[in-house]
Write a structure and sequence with these properties.
heterodimer; A: rod-shaped; B: alpha/beta; nine-stranded mixed β-sheet; 12 helices; globular
């Protein structure tokens, strides 16, 4: 029983470690602060 | 014009349908090892289409061959096409096949034929948008491409493989290899896709931009992926890819100098990747068949320095592009 609990806690710990690494990797970014998308039309396609 | 479409999957079948509705296209040969698939595609195209299940379909007498099957066959297919005096339009979005096709540049120039590399959604539409943005600037310093979504099963497999390969970035006159799946960046696509985390991947985009923009300092490409995509990238695909992806998007950010100021031009598009890739392949094939594209093996930004006629044609076919106005 204790061995099972140890294995389960080890598995949970490894999963947490992997999740933390995946979560922390990379720098992310910020969304645009102003403006937006508009379709390319007439004057844009000359 | 007589064209051959090799591969009748999500992109090839769309390209064939787009070509069948193009004035000036008299005959189409559609080839795919799947006899039922190629028969159903040809049945929908009418008498102008001829089906073939041969892996080495006879290309003699054709003007252009559209390569829409697995990328690993594109080099051999392109060599056969050039031997037969046929221009080539490859829809590959994989790095290795693109590199192999670019090596055909000398042969294509000698024969006066076009080998268009990466005529799909990204690369493809992204190259046309980058070329258009480049025309607004006096000097292009940086090109950054991001894409979201996949087309058919082959595209999904290529997306999966790209995250475990080495990414190729152009920085200050040198190629830099980085691990795929690294370098998270939030890319903002047109609605409804909006913000997506994008990562480095083994993609050919940077390779194709270099010759198009002399003085280019940085070129990068990223692909949207989930954490599960990145975690499972080293493994074989855990389940069968979907028959066709849903909505996809592409974003092209071009930075450079206009007059005395430094400016950033951002273009994007949202569509089903397989559908858009088929339309791009079709309009590029027509451009190659009518002599609008330069001879040689290169990306679209090199072969078609004036992308406007193609962007207009794509808009007529329902592929709408957008520009980001504001502070990106």
């Amino acid at each position: 029983m204790i061995r099972l609990l140890r294995r389960a806690s080890l598995a949970v710990g490894i999963m947490g470690l992997v999740a933390a690494v995946l979560r922390l990797r990379g720098t992310g970014g910020t969304p645009p602060q102003s403006g937006g998308w508009r379709e390319l039309s007439g004057p844009d396609l000359r | 014009m007589r064209l051959a479409v090799l591969g009748a999957g999500a992109v090839g079948s769309r390209a064939a349908r787009q070509l069948a509705s193009t004035p000036g296209v008299r005959a189409l040969t559609v080839a795919d090892p799947d006899a039922r698939l190629v028969a159903s595609v040809c049945a929908s195209l009418g008498p102008m289409a001829t089906p073939s299940t041969s892996p080495e379909v006879d290309l003699a007498g054709h003007d252009v061959a559209v390569l829409a099957g697995p990328g690993k066959h594109h080099r051999a297919q392109a060599e056969r096409a050039l031997d037969a005096g046929v221009s080539v339009v490859s829809c590959t979005n994989e790095l290795a096949p693109a590199r192999q096709l670019l090596a055909l540049d000398d042969e294509a120039r000698v024969r006066g034929k076009t080998v268009a590399v990466g005529a799909g959604f990204a690369p493809g539409l992204s190259d046309l948008l980058a070329a258009h943005a480049g025309r607004l600037l006096d000097e292009v310093h940086e090109v950054h491409v991001a894409r979201y979504g996949t087309g058919g099963p082959a595209c999904a497999r290529a997306h999966h493989a790209s995250l475990r390969g080495l990414a190729l970035d152009w920085r200050d006159g040198a190629w830099i290899s980085r691990q795929g799946g690294s370098g998270r960046e939030l890319a903002w696509f047109p609605d409804p896709v909006a913000g997506q985390d994008c990562y480095r991947a083994s993609l050919p985009d940077a390779l194709l931009f270099g010759p198009a923009f002399p003085g280019l300092q940085r070129a990068t490409s990223r692909v949207a992926a989930t954490r599960r995509d990145r975690l499972t990238a080293p493994l074989p695909m855990l389940r069968q890819p979907h028959p066709e992806g849903l909505v996809g998007a592409v974003r092209v950010e071009v930075r450079g100098r206009r007059g005395q100021s430094f400016e950033t031009v951002v273009y994007g598009a949202v569509d089903r990747p397989g559908l858009a890739a088929g339309a791009v392949a079709a309009v590029v094939a027509v451009a190659a068949g009518t002599g609008l594209a330069r001879p040689g093996a290169a990306g679209l930004a090199v072969l078609l320095p004036d992308p406007l006629p193609l962007l207009h044609e794509l808009a007529n076919r329902g592929i709408r592009c957008a520009t980001f106005a504001g502070s990106a």
